[in-house]
Amino acid sequence: MSVIKKVTCHVVSTPIERPFTSSRGWLYKTRGSCIVEIETQDGTVGWGECYGPSHVARSFIDTQFAQRIIGRDPFDVEVIWEDLYNRIKDYGAKGMAIAAMSGIDIALWDIIGKSTGKPVHKLIGGAFRDTVTAYATGLYFIDMDRLIEEAVEEAQAYAQDGFSAIKMKIGLGSPKLDLARVEAVRKAIGDDIRLMVDANHCFTVPAAIRLGRELEKLDVEWFEEPISPEDIDGYVQVTQALDMAVAGGENEYTRWGFRDIVSRKAMDIIQPDLCAAGGFSECKKIAAMATAHGVECVPHAWGSVIGVAATLHFIAALPDQPPSFRPMPALFEFEQCENPFRDHLATEPILLVNGAVRIPTKPGLGIDIDRSVLKKYAV
Ligand SMILES: [Mg+2]
């Protein structure tokens, strides 16, 4: 047994060339992350990532968690999870405290994999599949004078890249404009490409239901975050009113956070983020709970190659929902906006091949981190 020796948070950030926005406003002028590095006594290094404001995640780890895990056995990953959670839950049962724990949990699973010579998916139940169909996340709002044209061009480019599924942003303050934009994209990509929409919780319940009924006519597969995440009663209403699937949960945390959504069937699809909701240890529990209630689990992914790799291992180990002759397993969210940490932080990038992505097979997360990228963009 080799115990944990050192915990280091790398906060990285870079401005991007073409800032983009969702219904939430101009949040995306930079890309960055809090990357967690954990080293054991024998020199094994594991990597994790935390979703959300990087400095806040680093502060939680540096001041609350790091000293608590130094000297412990990384194989006690769930023991450590429970200990950290019970340390922080009076102040941080949701949000950044859990995102910080997620980065630690992912890094510990990476260490366990490297120590045993097994990829993480082999440690959490095995691979139901060795590739996963990816969907492109993009079609944000960039040029306010060309909102429809730019969406059409971007969607066509994804189709050309081989994506068989695309998710676009809606929520432009005018359901008519949203609808016209989705209509134009559907027309441009044809009927064979799966299309989803994401409102980033900008609608009221009646507005979401009215718009949803129109989107159903355009064969939109799911309506992501139609309304505010706190309003579980509202989600029950929207989900019951619409035939299309309603998705959400990228801003929910832990099994306790997802319990009420799942047990009330407030959404058809929950989207826990590996780097936010509690890492592998917790997301496995969330997914199992969802299965028991007939709710699909399709993880959210937004971040560096570390979050991407973690999500791929997690999806590899998700049973088909439901099992069948020709099942339709969870899609992998392959976000396509400018992000050097997704494209260059690993020595070999994770690529789309024929609309799908290979599950990494090397030990741990199965990626090698290029430290020069951490150095170049260090904050
Ligand atoms: Mg979303």
From TrEMBL:
Which protein, by its recorded name, is this?
A: L-rhamnonate dehydratase
Entry's Pfam families?
MR_MLE_C, MR_MLE_N
- Output one GO BP term: carbohydrate catabolic process
* Metal-binding found in the keyword field: yes
| Native source species | Advenella kashmirensis W13003
Which SMART domains does the record match to this protein?
Answer: MR_MLE
* Keyword terms of this UniProt record: Magnesium, Metal-binding
* Cofactor(s) the protein needs: Mg(2+)
**SUPFAM superfamilies per the UniProt record, alphabetical:** Enolase C-terminal domain-like, Enolase N-terminal domain-like
Q: Does the keyword Manganese apply?
A: no
Mandelate racemase/muconate lactonizing enzyme C-terminal domain boundaries: 148-245
